[in-house]
Design goal:
Number of strands: 11
Helix content: 40-55%
Shape: globular
Oligomer: single chain
Radius of gyration: 20 Å
Strand order of the largest sheet: 1-2-3-4-5-6-8-11
Distance between the termini: 69 Å
Strand content: 15-25%
Length: 280
Amino acid sequence: MVAPYHRSIEAIFDQNEGTFKRWVVSAVLQLHVQDGVASMVLDRPPVNAWNDEQLDLFEDALRAISERSDIAVVVVRGGGAHFSAGGDIKVMALAVHDGQMSGLNNFAARIQHLFHEWAQLPVPTIAVLRGAATGGGLELALACDLRVASDTSTIGLPEVKLGLVPAGGGTQRLTRLIGRGRALRLMLTGELVTGREAERLGIVEWSFPDADLDGHVERLVAHLVATAGPAHTAIKRCVALAGTGQGYVAETLYQRQLHQSPEALSRIRTFVSEREKSNV
């Protein structure tokens, strides 16, 4: 494994707004926050593969996002031609060659832990998939709430071809998302599919021609910013409880809280006022 990386975030202060507006994390991972939208870019060419350094930076970015109350939506994408091809195989091979199995095991466990924390963010998260979104790259995307893919992107969990299991949460999230049979099909064979096929299978919510992808993402982000508020967090938490028997109780409890929230009261008044005007 690579040597421990000294982590730092350069905070850029916005004098006009009196807030920290942007963080530039590193050359291999950037985080930018503006107008309620946090944009994170994985940028470790050629395929944005995960290593210890990038995981350190991802953790810093995760903490930075968690500590802000002005973020309505998070968008993660890859720099260059690819989203992420997963763990750095060269680093893994070196660890095996050097007998550093504890370090390799810790690396895998850390990916699972950080992606779990990412999935717990209270605001909607979007993965924008271009090029390769495989292995740990797809597992990050699966930890996001919504996935939008280029129809020619390459998507899958091919770890079985290395004699490994998708251990960054992939076996659990993919199964919940598309069902046992389809998930086993992809993971047992290591099959890779296009973004268009991934939409048909239910792995991604939308797929578009690459030239149209960014425009559709911008419109999706605008919709989410327009509906941002406590209801987003409540919906995410209720959905997380689906199938547990606790989801219905959570719906009732959150709805009672939201009925008294300034956000909901304002939106309800606005809705009623607009309806009354339209009927005049």
